[in-house]
Write a structure and sequence with these properties.
Strand content: 5-15%
Number of helices: 11
Order of helices and strands: EEHEHEHEHEHHHHHHH
Strand order of the largest sheet: 1-3-2-4-5-6
Oligomer: single chain
Distance between the termini: 47 Å
Number of strands: 6
Shape: globular
Largest sheet: 6 strands, mixed
Helix content: 40-55%
Length: 232
């Protein structure tokens, strides 16, 4: 377990994976990028929690399968104790149950372990800026695969007064996001400018207390606002 200080305007990154060679490779990529610094490395979730508490990184690159404490449990703990740190999940497969559970707990996205360096850096910057790293098409496939897990009976049957805070257009945007549509697609479907979609989506996230569009998708399905895709 190692750690460093990060300058104030720099994106600070914590690398969490039980494979030292993978961490070294990611560190080498990030050290070549201006405005990004690796402030620590951890080999499991327990060490990650300790480093997050000390270093408060902007982005945590988190493996899911690790000894002592896995990435899912560590993600949940970090979101609860240090919500400003964004979690970017590392996964071997395009979509798996671990990635889905991490997103549901508050991770901002996931990337494959063999991601090209340029895409890895782009993902780090996107997450640090508050965006979600998951394409709308992947959102659709993720929902198709895990639709049997939603809606959540407890959430679906509970009152949701926060929905009353949404305007009719904002509610419409939430439903469109849940359908896996991109901002450009929503703009075309709703006959509005893409900038207008972005504005409405930002208000939806703020009013519902959600971190990003992935959380909005999961929220909409979990409470039963929209129906899961039907299995063929």
């Amino acid at each position: 377990m190692t750690d460093l200080e990060a300058p104030g305007d720099t994106i600070s990154v914590l690398l969490v994976d039980d494979q030292p060679l993978l961490r070294k490779g990611f560190r080498m990529v990030l050290e070549e990028e201006p405005g990004i610094i690796v402030v620590g490395e951890a080999s499991d979730g327990m060490d990650a929690l300790e480093l997050v508490a000390r270093r408060r990184p902007d982005v945590v690159v988190m493996d899911v399968r690790m000894p002592r404490m896995d990435g899912i449990e560590a993600t949940q703990a970090i979101i609860a104790t240090e919500p400003r740190s964004r979690i970017l999940i590392l996964t071997t497969f395009d979509i798996d149950e671990y990635a889905f559970n991490a997103l549901r707990l508050g991770a901002s996205g996931f990337i494959l372990k063999d991601v090209p360096p340029a895409e890895f850096v782009k993902a780090i910057r996107s997450v640090a800026n508050g965006d979600a790293v998951i394409a709308p098409t992947v959102t659709r496939r993720l929902l198709d695969q895990f639709a049997h897990k939603i809606p959540d009976p407890q959430l679906a049957n509970a009152p949701h007064p926060e929905l009353d805070e949404l305007t009719a257009r904002e509610r419409e945007i939430l439903i469109e996001v849940a359908g896996g549509f991109s901002n450009a697609e929503m703009a075309e479907r709703l006959f509005v400018a893409e900038a207008t979609v972005k504005t409405h989506l930002g208000r939806v996230l703020t009013k519902l207390g959600l971190r990003d569009r992935v959380q909005a998708v999961i929220y909409a399905y979990a409470i039963g606002l929209v129906d899961p895709p039907r299995e063929n």
